[in-house]
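LOG
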Amino acid sequence: MPPNRPQLDGLAMGLMVVLCIVWGLQQVAIKFGNAGISPIWQAGLRSLGATMLVWAWANVRGVRLWAPDGTLGPGLLAGALFAAEFALIFLGLEYTNASRGVIFLYTAPFWVALGARWLLPHESMRRAQWAGMALAFGGVLALFGENLLDSGGDAWIGDLMILVAAILWAATTLTVKASRLARASAEKTLLYQLAVSALALPLLSLAVGEPGVFAPTPEVWAALAFQIVIVASASYVAWFWLVSQYPATRLSSFSFLTPVMGVIAGIVLLGEPLTPAVVLALALVGAGIWIANRPVARPLARAGEDGLQ
């Protein structure tokens, strides 16, 4: 299904920058939350709380959640992918460090682009878009390059888990774009994922024998509230609205800002140092996003320019 708006406009770009800031802050919130709640339980509680909030918001807006619109099948699939993705992220970080993990997680835009070649032929990418995404990914590598070389004996296990999580993230985006979910409201699309993960993640925590840590402090409660209200509710509703309106490949290129924003959040909130690598990463990611999202002058476009060259 072609997107309603083939290019990213000022609204989409501004909103994506805000979302990347929020998602970068999420990494700090998860660190605080892990201090008092087991990781997969924390993810499940986040989904449960966000399910209730998004459900209430959808009812206030009069969204017809129970309308027979053919979204049940793809909605349940998206929910299963969403739950598996977050389970793998939280489990993977038990084996590898966050700096390594973020590099593997942010291969997701490339998986979206590859999947779009078959599932979203109207969103096929030009050479400039591939180059821009590669440049942005180079910025992420510049930011975390030193830590990437510092691996432990079992780090490959976590790396593999998070790489699979990135593929699942891409698969969720493609499922939404290639199915009837593309025409559903953002609230309904998100509720499928939150509700399924709210049920699945606690069961998975029990199945893998996760330690039952639950000793929340005020800081832990605040971190969990931020994840529920701002991240899993508001930001994800905004994301799925964007996915329904704009090309997924162009939106995905913006996600490379998230790890950079996460490091900046660490500098501001945790007192971590501002290094030349941060400045270089911002420059590379910004240039890559600009190249990937430059509008094509349609009247001058050569035949076949919209495909992969």
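LOG (cont.) second protein
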Amino acid sequence: MAVDEALLRNFGDDNLPILRLYSWQRALSLGRFSDAKKSIDFEQLDKGGISMVRRISGGGILAHDNELSYSLIFPRRFLQERGVKESYRHLCSFLLLFYQKLGFEAQFAFEVGVQSRHSDICLAGVEAYDILIEGKKIGGNAQRHTKMAVLQHGTIPISFDKVLFNSLFLEHSGFESAATLKEFGVETKQTILHKILLDSFCETFHVETSADELSVSEKQSVSELLKNRYTKSEWNNNGSTIYS
């Protein structure tokens, strides 16, 4: 999460858009305004050895296990006149193609008539542009907008330990009805899934990609953010602003 914020902080209006692909070790990520004490059993969190971090993006608490994760950073002007909801439809379209390439008919929740419902836990809630396969929500996506740029990051769950993660919550978690690729019979290696995801992104947005590394200023921002924000309980537990 420090890398995501560093990329956003250092992004200039004339920069090329960034697509970052990465993965997690077992963890929970909290939305910017999530109430950790209300939703999470900290004793079970410690017992299970599960990490926890707060994102700068909105949305609910999301479990991360065996998954693909992505981040997009791009100029705000790329969204033109699209509102927040419409931007999700536009930006998540490459995920629909990814699932289609795996043989699934993925749809947005509003397209199949699923009513929105709010929850502090991501998988227990439904928003209009959440992605469903066979009626089950798969993954989650969240955004952060600045004057200059937009960050959207999200997950594609390959598998996760539902029993373990369900035990971490003090309220309905939504895990019993959440989808993963493994549950749908996908046994494809993660390296191949990464390639399919990248191909889907390029095909959807008619772009080419080239590999890159963090710049000196981005690395410096990562170090500062790790030191002053993402390793601090004031931020991760309470959302207190440590490094603005």
